[in-house]
Each structure stands twice: as structure tokens, then as C-alpha cells.
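Appendix B, example 12.
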Amino acid sequence: PLYRALENEWEHYPPDVIHATMNILSTHDTERIITALAGASPEGKTNAELATLRMIKKEYARCVALAKLAYMINATIPGIPSIYYGDEAGMEGYNDPFNRRPFPWGRENKELLSFYREMGALRTRETVYKDGELYLCRYSPCGLLVFGRASGSDVIYTVVNMDMEPVSFYSSNEVAVLIKTGGVTKRSDGGIELPHCAGAVIKTRYGSPVWCTPAI
């Protein structure tokens, strides 16, 4: 579904519109991304219950991992990644008014905050994210999302693996892993291996054939 949504957007809107799009994960009218990804359903719960409902430590850790992948995608597709205050700090929250709590100064999730800063620095440093064209790659399994942004002699791929099995990303040219999360490693054969729930931003030369295979 996400692949098709990106494909549909790129095909139906002119580049100037796409590059000016505000890409959001949370707003003041929706659940916060951390809660939306894996929090308990709000169905059947009163406002009094929702006001105090929090994830247990294990659930929250998984949501942080998923939020990193969501922001990795959000920050590397065409458009402007727009951050609703507190998402970078790992704030939880159901719909209004529980998504509007005060910013947790001094209690931010440092792991997630560091990742947001890292992605911001990447966007500032790499020119492909200013107006680079989007290249969508079709691979199996269906839980694998791969897309590239190209400008000049470089192309930078975003690779996110939500399939239960690990996959390896290869290029016919030299690659550099710019950002990674979720236990991404470099293989002895030059491939980049991504386990379940992992992502990487990978730079290579424009025009280099790339492919993904099951990691064995």
C-alpha cells in the first residue's frame, strides 16, 4: 500500500508540488505516531482511561524502533518532513486532547531525538533531498520498501525491511551506509544485510544496478 501511494502521488502531481508537500506523521488532530504504530486501541475506552493509558517498556521500545523507520521514510521521500512537536522526543498520545500534552523537557527519549537530528543533518548535507527525482524499486518480499533519490552523479536509497526474514541490498558499485537502524550490518560479499524491522540510507553512484535478495 505504501509503495502504491508513493507511486500514485509521484505520477499525479507535478514535481514543484511534490517537493513543496508537507509530509507529516502526527498532527494535533490525530494520534501521535508512537501511539498509532503499536499502541492499544482506543475503541471502547473512556477519556479518563485514555488520559492515563501508557505503553509498557517493551511495547514502547518497539514503537521507538518503528517510529525511526517511519521518520526515515518521511524524511527521504520528496517533500518537507514536518515534525509535530514532541514526536522527536517520543511523546505518546491518543486523539485530541491527549496528543497536546506539554513537551517533556528533560525527559525526552534521547535515542529517538538523536535519530531525528541525524536525519536532519543528512537532509542538509545531501543535495539529492533538495529536488532529486524519486525512483521506486519493486522487490520481493512485500514487506521490503526500497526507493532512491537521484541528483547529479549520486543516488541515495532508503531501504526498510518489515518482512520477517532478513534481506541483503547490493549495488554493482561501491556503497556507503549513511544512516542505519535496527541491526544493519555489512556482509563479507559487499552486501548490506537488514534484519526484520531495520532500515538504512545507502549512497552509491547514479546508474549502478542495485538488487535485493534473501539473506542466507
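Helices lie at 2-12, 15-19, 33-38, 47-52, 57-76, 110-125, 128-131. The mean pLDDT is 93.
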